[in-house]
Amino acid sequence: MNKMLTKSVLGIAGLAFTGGVFAGPVAAHAAEPVHASPVAVAVQADKPGVDAKALIPHGVQGKQSKIDLNDEQTGNAKAIIAATKKAGLPERAAVISIATSLQESKLENLGHLGDRNDHDSLGLFQQRPSSGWGSPEQITDPAYSTTAFLKGLKQVDGWQDMPLTDAAQTVQVSAYPDAYAQWEQQAADLVAQHWNS
């Protein structure tokens, strides 16, 4: 593990145990880990003012997954983008956030799932009230949950220069640390499409 990532993980670890930066994936949405190397990327930046290179600065890592989104999922992606802009963060933060939500919930604002729940994980990012992310009502508010995720992301030293899966994993502390990478292309496409809409 490189020194910068080790420092980031150790810095977040204190927050994870005191403030709650732990959210594991729901078993129903968990994916096999992605083992991959960088591949070329073609972001569909059809909107003016979106820097395609800033969306995926390192190229995507490995095989990419994609799902068709319904209106609710698209609305949740737009809510993540709006919260990212409100926080004053760049498009890359929105890409990381959307990719994380695609892995954790498929951009669905999940409530309690009974036996399929990973502990008490809820919302777009599968955040846990018992870990200090907020109340169930807060965590299932897309703006709140995104702001909470971004707060954790901002505490990761050098997140802007990390591969997406490393930045997301440092915040989420998932049992599937490489799984976030598979959503980078779709997340970048969504940000390119909706950042200026």
TrEMBL record:
The keyword Signal applies. Residues 1-23 form the signal peptide. Keywords: Signal. This is Secreted protein.
